[in-house]
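Troubleshooting log. The previous structure file for this entry was overwritten by mistake, so regenerating from the original sequence record. Sequence copied from the archived sheet and checked twice against the printout by T.R.
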Amino acid sequence: MAQETTQFKPTLSLLDGTMLVAGSMIGSGIFIVSADITRHVGSAGWLVMVWLITGFMTITAAVSYGELSGMYPRAGGQYVYLKEAYNPLVGFLYGWSFFSVIQTGTIAAVAVAFAKFTGYFIPAFDIKDENIILSIGSFHINKAQILAIALVLVLAYINTRGVKEGKVIQTTFTISKLLSLFGLIVFGFLLAKTNFWHQNWQSGLHAMQDLGRKNVSGSLEPTGWAPLAGVAIMGAIAASMVGSVFSSDAWNNVTFIAGEIKNPKRNIGLSLFLGTLIVSAIYITTNLMYLYVLPLDQIVELGFKCAMALSYVFRQGVVHRDIKPANLLAVLDNQGQVTDVKVSDFGSALNLNADMTQVHRVGSLAYMPPEQIEGGDVGAQADIYALGAVLYHLVCGRPPFDAPNQMALMHQIYH
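Regenerated output below.
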């Protein structure tokens, strides 16, 4: 009697593998790390060069993985490679670490973030005391946590139904992300009323650095640009690449499903190459768009100002310490001056029970949510509005509105 064998059914195409690579790589890093890179290298040329080096390293590593996948076209990815390169114990330890900590923690973090932002659109899932559904001592379970758990279960169930259903979700969302970034690049170049392209490229490849200095209150403040040369440039590039490499990570996920890809010896390596090439090209082009629409020196200066402002409101007890300068969106006018400051992390106010904190005070500053004038309900969004007004004052050095008294001020804001 012939012995039965069980194996995966190859159903994923080259397109599916490429979308998995690209979708795993693209995240929020492309929007937040370029300012930190500029702070380390100080010029448009080196900003682009750092992303070029990162892209080259990523594609080279992906092609190397492609060779491994051709040698061992089996499901398991790094587990298989570590097992074959060293011994089964190393592969076993990595496999259990990946299953119990690495990938599990990543999935949980993404699910919690999804639930947190859903709370902004659907108040029932806002992280507030009235949305707690179970309390056992100091342990609380709210609706946002249930939503996060439900999301994980639903996606897990979809994947258990078969590869076809899972690949539809992966491909759909990856194409959406790629089109969104492509649209950002195109509209950034086409719709910018004023560009800073020639101004930014005057710095060329002249490396400079301004890492800032802590003042007496512990906040970073700019110290001025210092030229770099020789070995110092290499150190600055290495430090600045921390963010760009992190933004280009996770491309190796496709190797975990090698057993489910058609013609794995060809398609895995090719999907790794195409996926990393597409994302690297988009990342580099996105930074070129940044250089077209944003003044390089003011990006760095604004980063310091945001850090100093946040440090101040931390000490006043207004916001959680998990809010970073990257969570602040500064709107600039045609001259590059700040005209507005927005908070991009909703639900960040220290006291989300906003009806108890209708007036925000930071030192001598006080802002009330505009809903209070009309007698409407004040929610967490009002806390964020008030926080944005406070940060505007601190970053820009002037209040966003000017009125003789508080009621007149709120009337001006509301209308």
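The mean pLDDT is 76. Archived copy saved in two places this time.
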